[in-house]
């Protein structure tokens, strides 16, 4: 698969490294966009497609479709996605942000933080990124960071999520839920809590799933964000975990160190400083390469690279699961 790629810089000791031309999507790429970040992309046709969070200059949170030949240079549609609803009681559009996209069987499923009397997880599907069909919200408010697994597990769809509250939640565990039909969700299982400050401070306040989990022989590789409440506010970084392939609520290993934290100017300066927030990852099974898309300071979109095997080794080497 011809995913975006740049070799590791000479002398770099990090497991994951930044693209030298970051940010790949600027805040003003659309004529009325204030910021474009926390977005999701997938292989599509001969190139790539995605759903992008574009906050406009009214500071409304909207979702837009986009297309790219190389995964780096993006044509983001200026019009917002209009979801087709079989049941209008699923909720009129209020806001939408932080989408994820996952291909399962014959269609692309989109999950996002949907406004329905508070934040919850909206769900829709598309086959062409032109027409989007919204189904029922997965959960009651309040919930965020809905991330689907790319195949059914024991015959059921599976989704990670992070129950929350109405605001900038100061807590958050990752849970797993199952569904037979992508409408009714149950069999909820606890996956991970924030780490104790003394063990891993970067993920001690709250955590949330990021890109679609990647299936490996070692388990499901999950890239997740963690938050530290510092003396200067929240700091969002991201790390990795391995989940059991058939019982993915069981954590096999979890990185105590972060893979990437906000350190560059575009990660530390913006509408929300000190944020590196992953929402998508493209991977090539033949080469083991992975390209991670992440939001930077809630303003622009960055790209980072790594190798699946090296991330798994890093996860085990820095493991904090007892």
Report on this model:
The chain is mainly β. It has a single domain, classed as Glycosyl hydrolase domain, family 43 (Tachylectin-2, Chain A), CATH 2.115.10. 4% of the residues lie in helices and 47% in strands. It is built from 2 helices and 22 strands. It has a 5-stranded mixed β-sheet with strand order 6-10-9-8-7, with no helix packed on it. A hairpin with a 2-residue loop joins strand 17 and strand 18. The longest helix has 10 residues. The radius of gyration is 18 Å and the shape is globular.
Provide the fold topology.
Layout (H helix, E strand, L loop, with lengths): L16 E2 L14 E12 L2 E10 L4 E8 L6 E2 L6 E3 L10 E9 L2 E9 L3 E8 L5 E3 L8 E6 L8 E7 L10 E6 L5 E8 L13 E4 L4 E3 L2 E12 L2 E11 L7 E4 L10 H4 L7 E9 L4 E8 L3 E8 H10 L5
Parallel strand pairs: 6-10
Antiparallel strand pairs: 1-22, 2-3, 3-4, 4-5, 7-8, 8-9, 9-10, 11-12, 12-13, 13-14, 15-17, 16-17, 17-18, 18-19, 20-21, 21-22
């Amino acid at each position: 698969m011809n995913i975006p790629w740049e070799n590791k810089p000479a002398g770099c000791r990090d497991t994951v490294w930044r693209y030298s031309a970051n940010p790949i999507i600027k805040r003003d790429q659309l004529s009325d966009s204030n910021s474009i970040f926390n977005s999701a992309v997938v292989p599509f046709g001969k190139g790539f497609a995605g759903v992008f969070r574009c906050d406009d200059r009214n500071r409304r949170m909207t979702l837009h479709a986009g297309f790219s030949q190389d995964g780096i240079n993006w044509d983001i549609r200026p019009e917002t996605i209009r979801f087709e609803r079989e049941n209008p009681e699923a909720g009129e559009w209020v806001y939408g942000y932080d989408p994820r996209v996952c291909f399962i069987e014959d269609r692309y499923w989109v999950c996002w933080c949907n406004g329905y009397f508070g934040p919850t997880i909206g769900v829709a599907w598309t086959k062409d990124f032109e027409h989007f069909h919204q189904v029922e919200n997965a959960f009651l408010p309040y919930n965020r960071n809905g991330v689907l697994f790319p195949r059914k597990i024991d015959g059921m769809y599976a989704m990670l999520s992070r129950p929350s509250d109405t605001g900038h939640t100061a807590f958050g565990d990752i849970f797993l839920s199952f569904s037979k039909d992508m409408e009714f969700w149950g069999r909820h299982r606890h996956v991970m809590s924030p780490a104790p400050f003394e063990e891993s401070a970067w993920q001690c306040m709250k955590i949330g799933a990021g890109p679609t989990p990647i299936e490996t022989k070692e388990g499901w590789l999950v890239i997740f964000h963690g938050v530290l409440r510092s003396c200067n506010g929240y700091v969002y970084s991201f790390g990795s975990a391995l989940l059991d392939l058939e019982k993915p609520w069981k954590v096999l290993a979890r990185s105590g160190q972060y893979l990437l934290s906000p350190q560059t100017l575009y990660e530390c300066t913006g509408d929300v400083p000190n944020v590196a927030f992953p929402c998508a990852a493209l991977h090539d099974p033949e080469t083991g390469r992975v390209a991670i898309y992440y939001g930077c300071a809630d303003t622009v979109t960055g790209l980072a690279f790594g190798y699946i095997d090296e991330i798994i080794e890093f996860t085990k080497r820095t493991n904090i699961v007892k």
